[in-house]
Amino acid sequence: MHLRQGTFSHLPELSDADIAAQVRYALLNNWPVSIEYTDDPHPRNVYWEMWGLPLFDLDEPDGVLAELNACRATFPRHYIRVNAYDASYGRQTTALSFIVQRPPEEPGFRLDRTDTDDRRQHYGFHPYALDDRPGERYGR
User: Cα torsion at 112, 97, 81, 126 (round to 10°)?
Assistant: First the structure.
């Protein structure tokens, strides 16, 4: 299973040149960029761990790529995404978000069905990655 979250999720994996082009676009629009990582990519888990601080006052994507490579080296088996924020509305709004790294093996999700009163059924997702403890979800 291939996790589909964020912009470009249905395209093939982005190269570093593709990532740099998207970061350059964000910087030209005056959108600060941040890098986040997680080992729990559930669709409702919107609060990923932030790598460092948001990268303000950059003109070129080289600084973002350097931080991205440091995050990749530290967390080689985690999901990593790049976010760009647009503050033109007077509040922090995500303008662009895309995954730049995935673990080598993505275990996927299970659909759980619960039967309730009056023959109603409720559905929910259970990620197989949560069967292991944090830090051990994608191997060592």
Answer: 0
- Please report the pLDDT score of residue 68 as a whole number: 96
The model's pLDDT over 91-103, given as tens digits with 9 standing for 90+, comes to: 878 999 999 998 8
Give the C-alpha separation, 85 to 97, whole Å. Answer: 9
pLDDT (0 to 100) of residue 140: 57
Question: In this predicted structure, which of 22-36, 51-65, 103-117 has the lowest mean pLDDT?
Answer: 103-117
Q: Which of 24, 97, 92, 108 is nearest to 64 (CA)?
A: 24
How many Å apart are CA 42 and CA 5, to the nearest integer?
10
Find tokens 């080598």 and name the residue: 104
Distance CA 80, CA 77 (A): 9
CA distance 140 to 137: 8
Q: Can you tell me which residue has the tokens 């659909």?
A: 111
pTM above the 0.85 mark? no
Structural domains in the chain? 16-105 (3.30.190.10)
